[in-house]
Write a structure and sequence with these properties.
Strand order of the largest sheet: 3-2-1-4-5
Radius of gyration: 16 Å
Strand content: 5-15%
Order of helices and strands: EHHEHEHHEHEHHHH
Number of domains: 2
Number of strands: 5
CATH architecture of the largest domain: 3-Layer(aba) Sandwich
CATH superfamily of the largest domain: 5'-nuclease
Largest sheet: 5 strands, parallel
């Protein structure tokens, strides 16, 4: 049984690819139907020019590619670009959030501003730390594997709070409300 559709932004895919953890990512999202947008694929191609490991994230057989070019999607895309800033690097996040909103899907976005904007518009947004903790709760990851995964992703330039990098579960328990 699927938990619905999850639309991927480039950042999580880039960090998991650079950390050589795409198999772990697949485990984290195995209950979702996974898609990404053409704009995100463009960002991944650009990222592969700087980091060859990112190529591994471009043709994953468990992530389908969707267009964000219907009128409703384009209207939403414009709204998200206005909120996120009309910078080339925000097109992926805007397309992910627009597609998610138009199709009642969840977005997988780690960027804090994009996360806040999406949630402010009613989009369900998942983030890496949340998915790792959920996988621990579901016995998909052990505590030590979850902590190692966060360290590996941080070493690949994923941005997490320092406290989560050092002690994921202590950080999760300290949240209000606690994540564990």
């Amino acid at each position: 049984m699927t938990r619905g559709v999850l639309v991927f932004d480039a950042s999580p895919l880039i960090h998991f690819a650079r950390a050589n953890e795409l198999e772990a990512l697949r485990d984290l999202v195995k209950d979702f139907e996974c898609v990404t947008t053409k704009a995100v694929l463009g960002e991944l191609r650009n990222g592969a020019e700087r980091h060859s490991a990112v190529r591994d994230a471009i043709d994953l057989d468990w992530i389908a590619t969707v267009s964000c070019d219907d009128l409703d999607e384009l209207y939403l895309f414009g709204q998200y670009m206005n909120r996120l800033g009309n910078l080339e690097r925000n097109a992926g996040e805007a397309s992910v959030l627009a597609w998610a909103e138009a199709h009642s899907a969840a977005a997988y976005v780690d960027d804090q501003v994009a996360c806040n904007v999406g949630r402010g518009r009613g989009v369900r947004v998942h983030r890496t730390l949340q998915l790792v903790i959920s996988a621990f709760r579901a016995n998909i990851l052990t505590e030590s594997r979850a902590q190692d995964l966060i360290k590996n992703l941080a070493d690949a330039d994923a941005r997490f709070p320092q406290a989560a990098r050092e002690d994921l579960f202590g950080w999760a328990r300290s949240r209000n409300p606690p994540l564990l």
